[in-house]
Design a protein that fits this description.
Elements (H helix, E strand, L loop, with lengths): L3 H4 L6 E6 L8 H23 L10 E3 L7 H14 L1 E8 L5 H4 L8 E5 L7 H14 L5 E3 L14 H20 L3 E5 L13 H8 L2 E5 L2 H8 L5 H14 L1 E2 L12 H23 L2 H5 L3 H4 L4 E6 L13 H7 L3 E2 L2 E2 L5 E3 L3 H14 L3 E10 L1 H8 L11 E5 L12 E3 L2 E3 L8 H9 L2 E4 L10 E4 L7 E10 L3 E11 L4 H9 L7 E6 L10 H7 L4 E6 L3 H11 L3 E3 L21 H12 L5
Parallel strand pairs: 1-2, 1-3, 3-4, 4-5, 6-7, 6-9, 8-17, 9-12, 20-23
Antiparallel strand pairs: 10-11, 13-14, 13-22, 14-21, 15-16, 17-18, 19-20, 19-22, 20-21
The chain binds L-Fuculose open form (CVU) and manganese (II) ion.
């Protein structure tokens, strides 16, 4: 059986820790060796205790063999890091060291420097010197410096330093995890959606990824010739019959499919799911069945399925495939989600991947469909919105690709959450399944039938919606809206939902307003959204997305993250400090895409 570890056909990238030191012997260096190495060890412990790889294992750190006092030791450390598969580097030091002689020169590795805030030895002076060196050499680095002075013997990591170390490392690992992997385009452009023109230059230059493309006829070949694991298929189909309840058919009676056709559709959508997953990550069982080439997969950590219309005019739609693969569980039990963008909207797929790799949770893919103002809601339902919803809400809804984790049926302290798969219980997975009904697809849209997942997201979850847009002349730009899912009274939800397609999953989303720019009103958020789709991640992860975007050199054109949570490379302030948003554009343009 294929699983998440095969999604990463190489080992996970490690974090390299570089203890930098003042190289002067006969007193200075010797007095600092232990303190410097201990800083490195404490950072390694912090990461191992707090960060996990997509398979749930703790993140691994590699510490340089010696403290780095100059060029020779910097080079030896660089060699060790490349041998060990280091993808992110942090330099730590309590003292003055020699700036450009000790720096990490690998341009594609995200880098940070923690300069201990003590005054016996000037770690902060080194920090300032080395960061200016990094800027001068076009190697943006993050500077970490505690707010409070520590005593020289203090080996603790203060909270503000800890937050920055973890924020940097989370985003840096995403950069490293994406590098060398594939976005698999299953089909081509869906209904003229520009995001599904899978742009190889974007993936290659900004994410270090390859793009690969297959025609959807490959699904037909594998179905007709039985190129999937027949034992898994039987197991999956009977699990689906038990756990995926078919909802009411919303099609006009004259149009409804026969029972026989509906049963056949179930078989087809289950096969499509196995095939899409095997296309992404391969499956050793296929080798045993004589399909060695197909067994390899395509090293894909994200994919998209065109579906509409070439496929869906004739075959069952991709909703089941997308919803199940994007969820944290299926007939194989609880497992990491796969990332599959509907309508092959690869730009939404990219932000789904960001959200997933930053948090190790499943992501909701949705159309950003309707802004419902408080007055409009009141006019059609008589209800006045309140709480998080008081300024209006966005109706996030698409034809069934959203992760079932998005039902909000997992809980922490009685509150709805979306967890990493290793924290999800059997009971919670079951609740997500029970909260979802699979409704025969709207045949006017999907002539080939299929099933759409219908559910309603529980309110009260902190969520972050994001989106990448490509702009000719600039390249990619990222937009971010933090907010909350909201509950509406049942009759209000029903009335609003029935105005659109009630067979699709709904999330009612209230973005957090700031009173200015794109976050003056909820209308402004919708009005400034760059495309028809958004990816919604559990939690307020806007700050991490901003950090990640700066590493990749993707400017952020709109966000509602408070200034004190924003963490970018130190060089960004050299592009202006009054208006960080436009400084971000200048910095990204100046340094250019990470892999170009
Ligand atoms: C069924 C329709 O074609 C939907 O799929 C459409 O509203 C979209 O999702 C557009 O992104
Ligand atoms: Mn859509």
């Amino acid at each position: 059986m294929a699983d998440i570890s095969t999604r990463y056909q190489s080992a996970f990238p490690k974090i390299g820790i570089r203890p930098a030191i003042d190289g002067r012997r006969k007193g200075i260096r010797e007095s600092l060796e232990e303190q410097t190495m201990e800083m490195a060890r404490s950072v390694a412990r912090l990461f191992a205790e707090n960060l996990r790889y997509p398979n749930g294992e703790p993140v691994e750190c590699v510490i340089a063999d010696t403290c780095i006092g100059g060029v020779a030791e910097a080079a030896a450390c660089g060699e060790k890091f490349s041998r060990e598969g280091v993808g992110v580097s942090i330099t730590v030091t309590p003292c003055w060291c020699y700036g450009t002689e000790t720096i990490d020169m690998d341009p594609s590795i995200p880098k940070a420097v923690w300069g201990f805030n003590g005054t016996e030895r000037p770690g902060a002076v080194y920090l300032a010197a080395v960061l200016s060196g990094y800027a001068q050499k076009g190697l943006p680095a993050f500077g970490i410096y505690g707010n409070e002075v520590q005593d020289s013997g203090d080996t603790t990591i203060p909270n503000d330093v800890r937050d920055k170390l973890l924020g940097f490392a989370r985003a840096g690992l995403v950069v490293a995890l994406m590098k060398g992997k594939t976005y698999l385009s299953m089909g081509s452009v869906s209904m003229g959606i520009a995001g599904s023109i899978v742009n190889d230059a974007f993936f290659q230059d900004y994410l270090g990824m390859r793009t690969d493309y297959i025609d959807m006829s490959e699904f037909v070949r594998r179905m007709d010739q039985g190129i999937y694991d027949p034992a898994e298929y039987e197991r999956a189909l009977s699990w689906v019959k038990e756990n995926c309840s078919e909802g009411a058919d919303n099609n006009p009676p004259a149009l409804q499919s026969t029972r026989e056709q509906k049963d056949k559709d179930w078989e087809t959508v289950v096969k499509m799911t196995l095939i899409a997953r095997d296309l992404m990550i391969g499956n050793p069982r296929l080798d045993e069945l004589g399909y060695g080439e197909e067994a390899l997969g395509r090293n894909a950590i994200a994919s998209g399925f065109q579906g509409q219309r070439a496929w869906t005019d004739h075959f069952p739609n991709g909703d089941f495939l997308e919803a199940m693969l994007n969820s944290s569980f299926d007939w194989n039990g609880i497992r990491a989600p796969y990332i599959v963008a509907t309508e092959n909207d690869s730009l939404n797929g990219a932000v789904m991947l960001f959200g997933n790799l930053l948090t190790n949770t499943a992501q909701i893919f949705a159309d950003v469909r309707t802004f419902w103002s408080p007055d409009s809601v009141e006019r059609v339902t008589g209800h006045r919105l309140s709480g998080h919803a008081e300024n209006g809400i966005l109706h996030l809804i698409n034809s069934g690709p959203a992760t079932l984790d998005g039902t909000g049926q997992q809980e922490q302290d009685g509150k709805p959450v979306m967890k990493s798969f290793w924290d999800i219980s059997e009971e919670e997975a079951q609740k997500c399944l029970d909260a979802t009904s699979w409704r025969p697809a709207s045949l006017e849209y999907f002539r080939g039938g299929g099933y759409s997942s219908d559910y309603l997201t529980r309110g009260g979850m902190p969520m972050t919606m994001s989106r990448i847009n490509l702009v000719k002349g600039i390249g990619p730009v990222l937009q971010i809206a933090e907010g909350y899912s909201v509950d509406l009274p049942e009759h209000v939800h029903d009335t609003l939902d029935k105005r659109t397609d009630p067979t699709w999953p709904t999330t009612w989303f209230a973005p957090t307003l700031t009173g200015s720019g794109a976050f003056r009103t909820v209308y402004d958020v919708m009005d400034n959204w760059g495309a028809n789709h958004g990816s919604i991640s559990y939690g307020h992860i806007g700050a991490d997305l901003i950090t990640l975007a700066s590493m990749l050199r993707i400017p952020v054109n709109m966000h509602n993250v408070p200034a004190e949570r924003i963490f970018r490379p130190r060089a960004w302030s050299l592009f202006g400090t009054d208006n960080p948003e436009s400084a971000d554009y200048r910095a990204c343009t100046n340094f250019g895409p990470l892999y170009n």
